[in-house]
Every structure is written in structure tokens, then in C-alpha cells.
Amino acid sequence: xxxxxxxxxxSGIRRLPRDAWPAPLTLAWDTAVGTRRGRRRxxxxxxxxxxxxxxxxxxxxxxxxxxxxxxxxxxxSPERMDAYFDWLAEHGNAPHSILGRFxxxxxxxxxxxxxGEFGFVTRPDGIPLRQTMEMRRRVLFIPDARHTVFWxxxxxxxxxxxxxxxxxxxxxxxxxxxxxxxxxAPRARAMQALSLSRHLVRTQEGWMLRxxxxxxxxxxxxxxxxxxxxxxxxxxxxxxxxxRALLRGQDHxxxxxxxxxxxxxxxxxxxxxxxxxxxxxxxxxxxxxxxTSLTTTRAAAGGSHPLDAALILGHSATTSLRNYNRARxxxxxxxxxxxxxxxxxxxxxxx
Length: 351
Prior knowledge:
3 domains, 5% strand, 3-stranded antiparallel sheet
């Protein structure tokens, strides 16, 4: 089984992988996906629904309740949902995470068993689940995007001082990845799936990252964005030297190479970022945090252009403005604190 949640909750939760699902459930899932039952959904949506089902099945298995002969509909009941809610909370899930798990499960149930009635999943006793919880946004550590670029440069400089070998190769690879995430913050799925020939363009001005096709959410947006010289130098070195060494004689087009020579998987990307961020900041986080960092930093540093980050990230103006508002709140808090400090100095009471 796969562990989930390297940071911020989900401690000890295991997700049952697709190849371990009960046969009736697998059949219902494959039928629903194959016939595209209901409205058309993106691959990312199916992945999200499957994750929700896998987490619920992991719960059932951990409690000795998993029935290999049952369908998903037969393994869900109001009583089970109450126990599942408590189990998620006991394992560190915040209210927003619990709500997301229940919504994923509810959507999968409706897709797989369209004639069933599963309103009790998200509306226990007819009350929306959101109303039964105190929905507070978890306080996140958000690094300054400018500092994360310095982090990539420091990793690169330190790696060049290491002896030739695997640790040096991996650290330069990681520096290149963190540099790209710091400047352009691709989605984790896109970052992991980058290929050398399709998504990186070497021009006279430097490196260009071209995100398009299957690696993009919805597969409609095309983003062509340049990398700075400071990150370009790291990437240039990685592609010319460390990537070739990491391949160990293998031949594939994936930009990011794992230590065994194959393409780096999503779990490898997540674990690397969690480990490196924990060492750098004392707080481990995943690759998606770079998107929040970029939006918040650009809004805070250049608040007159709150939508700049949306153009880089390829997400909606609404999302950008929500993060912009967060940045404005941070700046307002800092200004308030500075004013208090000034008054304390004037009154001679500064501690």
C-alpha cells in the first residue's frame, strides 16, 4: 500500500492501490471510466476520485472491514461514514481535508453506481458536512519565492564541491528542479512528466520551458516561459553532465532521472522536495507549495500587479486574487507590527 501525506496531516494513513481493490469494485470503476458515465471528466479528476476511494478502502482494511466480494456501494453506509470521519480526524486530517475525502468518495460512488442514493456521504442527516465542522484554513509555511531561487543556487554550489558520484549527481538534479519550481512553479504532475525534447527549448537567450499537451490540466493551455540565467546555468550543467551520468546507459527522454537510471516518478519528486525543504526551512512541504509561494510573493512584492502570477502558473484570475488577498493581509500585519514597534520606541517601552 502507498503512504500519503508527507506533510500537514494524514499521519499513518494508507491508500489501497488500484491493483489491490476488490474485483467487483474494480469492474464497476473500469466500466464507469470506460463508458465515461455522466459528464466528461479530465484524467486528473479520475485520479482524484480513485485516490478518495483508495483512502476509504485503506481505512476499511485497517479496521478489518474490507469485503473482497462487495461493491463500493455495499461498503458505504451512514454508520460507516461516521466512523470514517472520526478515523480521518484521529489521523490528523484538517476539516478541509476531511471534506475533500468525502467529496471524492461521493463523486466516485455516483459515477460507479448511478442508480444509488449517496447523499448521506456529504450531507449526514440532511446537513451539509461543511456546516458540521469549523472550516479554518490550516496555517501554512509559505517561503518567499525569491529565497527559494537562492536555495537552488546554494544547493548547486555545494554540490560542485562534492566528490564525483551519486550524491553530487542527485543534488545538482534537485537544484535544477527546485530552481524551475521557484521561478515558474509548474504543477507537480507537469514537473514530473517533463521531457527533454518536448518541453525544454534552448535558445540564444537561454532555456525556455514549454508546457503543453498531456502534462497540462485540461490539456488546452500552452505556456512558454523563459528561465533566468541563474537557473539556466544549473539546468545546463544537469543536462550536459549529471543527467547523462544518472542514466547509467539507459535511453529515455524524461528530463528527471532517478538514481536507478529510469524516469523519476511522482513519489520520488514529492519525497525529494519534502526532504530538501525540511533540511532548508525546518518544515517539509510538497511541490505544490511553490505555486502558493510564487503567487503570494509576487503579490506581496509587487501588489499593483496581482494577476502576474496567474499568467505564469496558467491558473484562473480568481485563484490568483485569492492568494493576492492573502499576501495583502500578510503585508498589513507586518505594517501594523512595525507601527506598534514605532509607538513603543517613542514611549520608551520597547522590550
